Sequence to fold (271 residues):
Amino acid sequence: MYGNIPVFQVTGKTIPETWEKAVLLTWEKGIRIRTEYDKPGDPESRDCTMVMVIEEPMSEPRIHRAFPGGLEDLEIYRQEVVDGVHDSWINPAEGKWTYTYHQRLFDYEISGKKVDQITLMIDRLAKSGHTRRAQAITWNPATDAESDDPPCLQRVFCRLCPDEKSDPVLNMNLHWRSRDAYKAAFMNIFALTDLQRIIAQRISEKINKKVRVGRYVDISDSFHIYGSYYSEFKGFLDTVKKRSFEERTWNTEFAEPFFEIARQKLAEEKS
Fold:
């Protein structure tokens, strides 16, 4: 593979199953390559182009115990993406955040106009479920091309497909330019599949017919494991080796008390 970045596809029923497969494959077969974040002495990262196909993204278990973060953090991140709870933190002039995914998807600013791309997607799909034009983008070439922290997520694509009973099923594709396979991808997928659920629900309300959440496809141009945290990553490898899949995952029901604590923290922020 000299001179070429390897391309892999993994498929699984649930989020944790598919994410785990993708991370392990990247570790085992990803190309060794440097990054712009490397410090002297850091090993090369392991990198590939990755396609993850999650057949039933809302099926349990939805949570992998070995993702590097807490359950409260997971709920806060989900709300950042789908509800925009921290859009107010955007203030590049003061050295703060330059964007959030929620702001780019629901409040994209171009030529002095703000556009709710997700609502436009929903309206288009409600009118014509088989359209190929239901998409939303995040990249803003006026600001992102020279940014030190441009968005990793680039594009959201949705389409309705009839099942065997001719009932509509919402399919979603996510396109990423760059992705930390171990430290970011799981939380990304957890939040954005919840956005998929919300889009399906809103279309259902418009057409007065249930829309089921279908497969989720996640495409990363650069899906990578950084050399700088290889020693930490060994804990993930040990977990996979020593524990059963059931011992490596949680159902959402288990996480709900922790999610509620996160909701209380967010409520206190606003008060």
Q: What stands out?
A: The chain has a mean pLDDT of 96. Residues 54 and 172 are 10 Å apart (CA to CA). The helical segments are 15-29, 71-82, 101-106, 117-127, 141-144, 185-207, 230-242, 252-270.
